Amino acid sequence: MKAENVSLPIPKPSPCALFSGRALQPLPLNEFADRCLQRLQQGERLLSLFGRAATPADAGDWVLTAVFLPPEGALGVLRGQARRGEHYPSLSASHPAAQIHERELWEQTGVVPEGHPWLKPVRFEGERQQHMADYPFFTVRGNEVHEVGVGPIHASVIEPGHFRFMCHGERVIHLEIQLGYQHRGAQALLLRRPAWGLTPLVESIAGDSAVAYAWAYCQAMEALSGRPVSADTALSRAVGLEMERIAMHVATLNGLATDIAYLQAAATYGRLRTAVINASQRVCGNRFGRGWLRPGWARALSAELRDDLRKTLQGFARDIHEVNGLMRSARSVKARFVGTGVLSPQAALDMGLTGVVARASGVALDLRERLPGVYEHAPITTVTAPTGDCWARMDLRMQEIDASVAWLLEALARAPGEPATALAPAAPEGASAALAAQTLCVSLVEGTRGPVLQAIETTDTGGLLHYHVQDPSPANWFGLALAVRDNGISDFPICNKSFDLSYCGNDL
């Protein structure tokens, strides 16, 4: 018989990538910056830029790492080396998306991006903690220009942050956001505990994204130890993540309805969010998903739990459709949201915004589709909106809720172990194992706000050398400042809530 050519589907790149430390030879600082600039000019997205203290085997004082996501293909990494106080040509001058990464790098290492247009502290680490009052706020001068300062202590129960509005009458000319009041030291704490027991700490970094953070940590540990999890374990994690996404999107819709005094919708959203987080509690014992997963393990979804989740989601889907219809059809909602807080697609792309905020401004990036992992066998299509206003951010959250509910109902209808979920061979669950030595692992999960990134590097004996955590919020806070410009100051609450960013995700 004549053999036939069979075209097999090419697996999509993984959201978790390993890089040999021996192969990542650090480049001199200026050459490192040049190579980073070349990748940016080729259309790659700078996901992260961070540094760690050099070891005796390294040259210089700091080892720098840049993580890139190309338009297609797998994650890429560049390594550089630098001495404290050394200068390099700023990437932000031509690619503003790098601005928050370069500021963080400068604050933590003293390596200076020469020509950075906005070189200000991000978290006020170390000695800078005593000098927050010296922050160099941007000023606008004019006879009728005035400033309005809000925070860091707020009337509502939220975390500390200072918002300084420069206004001409009621119109906002510029908003500057100063965060960094909490000084939690989360990244340093992760290096003081046994590597395999960090999940409770990781879950607490951003409490409303506990599943996303825990999953990024777990898949990094599993990759470093060469112990992939079973298909059912991966599916359980995705169920937990989508339940978290639904609950947090509904919480944002609740806040939006409350901020415009649409109390019927606000009350309904509050009830519906409670139904979702209570269902998560019945799975793992915690309403915010803590305890749903651990390295090598996740909560087993028994037939009883699947049925419970399915019934909860079916009832939820009916009610969320009704209340979303009320929000979309109400003239008062349209009057407040349409055309308010506009962030153009070009601005969102230039500033490197992520998650639902970027997608509402036309940037089609969702790691569940771009680096799918468990989602490869049951894709979630990326949805965008072109207008970039409060209405688009509201409506896109509604669409993402619908997509997550549909995905969950389909996933929960499958019997455990069906071929459609076969991702990797089963591994012993909950087991500790040696980690690959001198290896860098970059792990990504598309959380509610966008990509949650964790980069773990090991020593030559397999211990933890460095642990870098990155929330999607820091880049997006600057997007909020841009969106508020030329709006009335009374519209700031709905602009702020439509972004719904994390303070603790910034103040690590």
UniProtKB/TrEMBL annotation:
<dbReference type="InterPro" id="IPR029014">
    <property type="entry name" value="NiFe-Hase_large"/>
</dbReference>
<dbReference type="InterPro" id="IPR037232">
    <property type="entry name" value="NADH_quin_OxRdtase_su_C/D-like"/>
</dbReference>
<protein>
    <submittedName>
        <fullName>NADH-ubiquinone oxidoreductase subunit 49kDa</fullName>
    </submittedName>
</protein>
<dbReference type="InterPro" id="IPR001268">
    <property type="entry name" value="NADH_UbQ_OxRdtase_30kDa_su"/>
</dbReference>
<dbReference type="GO" id="GO:0048038">
    <property type="term" value="F:quinone binding"/>
</dbReference>
<dbReference type="InterPro" id="IPR001135">
    <property type="entry name" value="NADH_Q_OxRdtase_suD"/>
</dbReference>
<dbReference type="Pfam" id="PF00346">
    <property type="entry name" value="Complex1_49kDa"/>
</dbReference>
<dbReference type="GO" id="GO:0016651">
    <property type="term" value="F:oxidoreductase activity, acting on NAD(P)H"/>
</dbReference>
<dbReference type="Pfam" id="PF00329">
    <property type="entry name" value="Complex1_30kDa"/>
</dbReference>
<keyword id="KW-0560">Oxidoreductase</keyword>
<keyword id="KW-0520">NAD</keyword>
<dbReference type="GO" id="GO:0051287">
    <property type="term" value="F:NAD binding"/>
</dbReference>
<feature type="domain" description="NADH:ubiquinone oxidoreductase 30kDa subunit">
    <location>
        <begin position="85"/>
        <end position="122"/>
    </location>
</feature>
<dbReference type="GO" id="GO:0008137">
    <property type="term" value="F:NADH dehydrogenase (ubiquinone) activity"/>
</dbReference>
<feature type="domain" description="NADH-quinone oxidoreductase subunit D">
    <location>
        <begin position="270"/>
        <end position="500"/>
    </location>
</feature>
<dbReference type="InterPro" id="IPR052197">
    <property type="entry name" value="ComplexI_49kDa-like"/>
</dbReference>
